[in-house]
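name: query_chain
kind: protein
chains: 1
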Amino acid sequence: MSFLSINNISYTYPPINGEFETDENGNPIIPKPIFDFFTAELPGSFTSLIGPNGSGKSTFMLLAAGRIKPQQGNVTLFDLDIANISEEKRNEAASFIYQNMEFEQDDPVEDLLKQVYENGYHSEERKATADFYNEVIKVFELENVLNHKLTGISKGEIQRVLLAFSILYGSKSIFMDEPMFAMEDRQKHSAMAFIKKYSKENNVPVFIAMHELDLSKKYADNVLLFYPDRRMDYGTPEEVLTKEALEEAYGVPAAMLRDTENLNRNALKEASETLNDLSKN
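structure:
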């Protein structure tokens, strides 16, 4: 059984509210396809998605997890046509978390975590003891936020809760889009080490998009490097994350890549803070 097969897909984001943006002359701006007759087959592993903003990483994971449907072709995950199965089967096959997920629940964090765990796909044998649940709480340092609501904790704390959700839910695969940019460095390392261990011990493929090259080099089994022209390179970090490839993908000298990473993370933080401010008004 293959893990992820992408078969001749095309996908272009539809216009907002049914209308295209227009140029200075009033002519509609027709968006370019994100993927155009794209085919690939990838094994299940702990895989880091690397590349500049706008290169297609998020769209790739949304398609792979069945959260959006290609206009042409199909995507199979565990040999399932992931966009054309029931929501329950899709959630069992893949969970998806992203940096600005919103929740309407007003329950304390602990109640939400337990609901996710109890209603998820881990074995009843695992759920019968509190060992695994307690380990997740400890690894993601959630002891001090269990009695708080999600609206009353920091962005970094919310991200640690989301990571816990993804593990406690127990889907057969996990897709994560920039899930830890607001966390402290030591928390990122702790989270990556645990997620990699969980992935290997439970045979759960994990695809995680992030801008931290050092984390990808240290923890990822494989890397999927996205170029602005939609080309991709796949292989081990040593094979893919070469100086030449990174400079081509990001369009800056290798010596400036760390500055680029910081700019990307800061942009994500600012966008997240803006959304939080708007939601409070």
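note: The beta strands are 4-11, 35-42, 46-50, 72-77, 80-81, 95-98, 174-177, 206-209, 222-226, 232-235.
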